[in-house]
Amino acid sequence: MADKADGYDSLREQYPPILNTAQVAELLDLNPRTVLVMAGDGRLPASRLKGSRKFHFVLESVIDTLKENLVSETSETEESSAH
Q1: Which of these, 7, 31, 44, 50, has the minimum number of CB atoms within 10 Å of its CB?
Q2: Is 3 domain-assigned?
Q3: Running DSSP on this structure, what letter comes out for residue 72?
Q4: What is the spatial distance between Cα 24 and Cα 28, in angstroms, rounded to a whole number?
Q5: What's the CATH code of the domain at 46?
Q6: 4 assigned to some structural domain
Q7: Where are the alpha helices (DSSP H) in the chain?
Q8: The predicted structure's pLDDT at residue 52
């Protein structure tokens, strides 16, 4: 079950539990094509029924992905020193 005190309540209220590509693009402020690419390469968790080209996204999985990819000062410093 989702941690309701995690600050993502407004997303849970605004979006349905299962999202389409356009909804995920809106939620993440990305181009829908980018969402498709990220779903295809595994950066965004998605499901696709056999024989279908349409991706489906579970809202809680998208929120979990956001939580797992938080940017911190440490990761920014490590990333900039690697370049």
Answers
A1: 50
A2: no
A3: -
A4: 6
A5: 1.10.10.10
A6: no
A7: 9-14, 21-28, 32-40, 59-68, 73-81
A8: 92
Dihedral sign from CA coordinates of 43, 31, 61, 63 = positive
pLDDT of residue 5: 79
The model's pTM: 0.79
Q: How many domains does the chain have?
A: 1
| Res. 72: pLDDT tops 80 | yes
Q: What's the chain's Rg over C-alpha atoms?
A: 15
Query: What gap in Å lies between CA 45 and CA 13, rounded to an integer?
Result: 20
In a domain, 72, yes or no: yes
The two structure tokens encoding residue 14: 């605004």
Kindly report, residue by residue over 33-71, the tens digit of the pLDDT. 999 999 999 999 999 999 999 999 999 999 999 999 999
